[in-house]
Amino acid sequence: MQLRELAEKLGCRLVGDGETEVHRLAPLHEASEGDLVFIARTTDLPKLKTSKASAAIIREGSPPCPRPTLLANDPYLTFVQALRLLYTSDQPTPGVHPSCVIQEGVRLEEDVAIGPLSVVEAGVTIGRRSVVGAQVYIGKDSRIGADCRLYPQVMIREGVEIGDRVIIHSGTVIGSDGFGYVRGEQGIRIKIPQVGRVILEDDIEIGANVTIDRATIGVTRIKRGTKIDNLVQIAHNVVVGADTVIAALSGISGSAKIGDRVTLAGQVGIVDHIEIGDDATVGAQAGVAKSLPPESVVLGSPAVPHLTFKRRVAAASRLPQILNTLKRIEARLVSLESASGTEGQQSQTAQSISERGAH
Amino acid sequence: MQLRELAEKLGCRLVGDGETEVHRLAPLHEASEGDLVFIARTTDLPKLKTSKASAAIIREGSPPCPRPTLLANDPYLTFVQALRLLYTSDQPTPGVHPSCVIQEGVRLEEDVAIGPLSVVEAGVTIGRRSVVGAQVYIGKDSRIGADCRLYPQVMIREGVEIGDRVIIHSGTVIGSDGFGYVRGEQGIRIKIPQVGRVILEDDIEIGANVTIDRATIGVTRIKRGTKIDNLVQIAHNVVVGADTVIAALSGISGSAKIGDRVTLAGQVGIVDHIEIGDDATVGAQAGVAKSLPPESVVLGSPAVPHLTFKRRVAAASRLPQILNTLKRIEARLVSLESASGTEGQQSQTAQSISERGAH
Amino acid sequence: MQLRELAEKLGCRLVGDGETEVHRLAPLHEASEGDLVFIARTTDLPKLKTSKASAAIIREGSPPCPRPTLLANDPYLTFVQALRLLYTSDQPTPGVHPSCVIQEGVRLEEDVAIGPLSVVEAGVTIGRRSVVGAQVYIGKDSRIGADCRLYPQVMIREGVEIGDRVIIHSGTVIGSDGFGYVRGEQGIRIKIPQVGRVILEDDIEIGANVTIDRATIGVTRIKRGTKIDNLVQIAHNVVVGADTVIAALSGISGSAKIGDRVTLAGQVGIVDHIEIGDDATVGAQAGVAKSLPPESVVLGSPAVPHLTFKRRVAAASRLPQILNTLKRIEARLVSLESASGTEGQQSQTAQSISERGAH
């Protein structure tokens, strides 16, 4: 595509040769001829001189640039739009591969594509233009909306409801049994049948090898627009709000309720039955054991407000010095006491503290 | 089902109209007509008035309830039994789907069901009434007991032994190679062949996307009755005792030995070659680096007894105040020293501590 | 195999009856007749007396042993070599199972084996002697090198490049979309198309249920010789160096760069865009938020040098004692002040600290 054409489609100002041909977007350090690069920081502009990139997207108002340039007010958003223009995604031809096993009473709306060796059980509905990859399993009576994409080897159990424009990556399991038992005699655990459902609303994306358990009774629900990274665990009866983001390796325990526009960073743990308020942010590796009000920002395990956490980390770093200070203070007390003739109380000294262990 | 019939089958006392029809169990906040609800806490009883539920299970001895009621001594257990009565699980018709690939020398006992597109390698035995879902893989010479359920896309490698009444959820991998290498020249790692096995005893349930590695030599073993949640890692040569519970995203390193009736909460890590005693409880996100005696209750990373942990967390929360107290003490010492004519020792002040960083 | 033959092949010194037949390697506590055991520690030698093992591998220079013995300078390496001799791995017959779906333009080099019900998309190349298990998916234009092994149910997306002698375990997903969005109006997230690739260099092993995301643009790269355990997350545009080891349940965030010969223990988290220097070691459950120089050894969340971490843990264990010491110091100050007639400043006492909580 010519840079001039791209500029028009993106609504950017063009500086330099509009005839320049660009074929690909590339990171600055990997760019070769025909590549369009995206410069996030002005300090990276000089690197463009030694790059083989043919053109660059930079922020309107940046210093002049040694390549033909697209100037954008929001260069990151322009970069994403350029990606969409240059990479037309690989939409497969509609139709069901003959190797699939499609059971009775399946309803496929127009232009659905299903890849090889997938299994669709009885009573399933799949909406218009949805693409189901190879080796996918869709359980009885589940419903998939329109314009969805299920990548190869996704597993959807029975009775799951999925909205429109939902993307699910490979290896992800939706609707597995929740982890619930009652203690019988002699500590033996009796399985609680997990007869509830999972509902994924519209515009959700779920990463690879995620697990979302069905409710015991009722519904495990993910609300619209929420994005979930790889290897995340969502337990039974959890409700995740709208436009929330959950990073990799996080786990949300049973019946927890996560608000709208919440951010859970990586490896976060949320205990069962608590509530995380709207717009809260939970830092990486935090462990949240109590409900959080809206707009909380927490860190640590157990999680505390992030300023408290930072103060504690800073104070903890001074602990060895505190021990030293205590020793010096005690020495000064002894001097004062002997000078004044006051008898020092029999006390455990800081010295003895630093020689004894914990517990 | 009529409430009267349910009361008889569950051995509960019925209060109110025995003709009431119930079709479904539902959570209190979602219940509609025809639903039976389960009231865990007396404080939830008033909510029943505004609920559309047709009937309720409550604890014997609770205040009167505005709906036809089943009174139970253990209402939670009764709820589970009611689930079993109202939801007859979807037992598939026995038989092997014609799309499966079943190799030579496979022995299927009576009433086994195998779903579409599964692969069963040579020498496998599957016990009576076991249900193998679609797209499952069972490796050479593995043995599955009776009344097992393997959900779609489970992967069992060769030589794995599985007892009776074992449930394995989708995406789980049993018998993958352990993570073992020897360091050769120049730091290059040479793979140690992993030629051991995995044994899962009776009455085990394993969640979705779990990984259980085969032993290097010998056996990785999970003992009877143990329940494992989603996304858990069990390394080579681990032994997990009976009736133990392991929550999501926990990892047990090589050759660790977990006792009977142990509870590992979510995201717990256990280092290699240690032993966790019977009836121990390890709190969420704890990291256990040393063997634990029976009945230990630990928290934290590194894990310590839970009371120690709580004391430390409480003390840590007072650290900034400790710094302030030290400053005030030093000021008082200076006053005393100047009053008594004693020369204060050259000392690092608390002030200087709070201004300097860590390390 | 006779012990004499094994000794010759392994280059070990034989002590005792060379006619002894050994069939299997076994752990000491499980050994039966015909088993060769490996004694790692001299203290385990007495256990051999009560073992049914037929022979043992022990370190050259150890005390005499009550069984026919192979003496080795590096007994662990010898054990690994013995494993390779006694367990010839199960190399399947070359050929493509007729149940597979192989699209057009696929190039299979000589002696490739592909198990049942796998899908190989258009434009894929698979190198000589590589073994692809059952139910594997290989996306369009991906290239697999020679002598690779993909276990059943591996999922490789389009455009992935895999070197020679790479092993990938079941359930692992290579080339799923990175987790990247731009914030549009009203907090709605717009997906950034993930059009980059994944390159796995030679001699890599990747565990079960791992996820490695493709780059946004450019490459997510794992360099030669690196070994990755189960359930690990590698985000988009990450670069992992050569001969690095990553233990289970660790997560590496987007664009992070991990050096050569690095060790990440279990459940480690690495934030995005940072750099971990060559030969660094990150302890279990550590959370690394800042770049680390080469040869760092860190622990904790946030991670600090391991000696600092140990000092802090030790100091934290003394916190309750520090509170007691402060109380005693204050009592002594009061005595001194009343003796000298100095008025104690109005101050928050240690007592009050220990009675008040934090936040």
TrEMBL record, chains A, B, C:
Catalytic function, reaction form: a UDP-3-O-[(3R)-3-hydroxyacyl]-alpha-D-glucosamine + a (3R)-hydroxyacyl-[ACP] = a UDP-2-N,3-O-bis[(3R)-3-hydroxyacyl]-alpha-D-glucosamine + holo-[ACP] + H(+)
EC number, UniProt record: 2.3.1.191
Domain of life the protein comes from: Bacteria
GO function term, MF aspect, one: N-acyltransferase activity
Enzymatic class: transferase
Record-stated family: Belongs to the transferase hexapeptide repeat family. LpxD subfamily.
Protein name (database record): UDP-3-O-acylglucosamine N-acyltransferase
Natural source organism: Candidatus Methylomirabilis lanthanidiphila
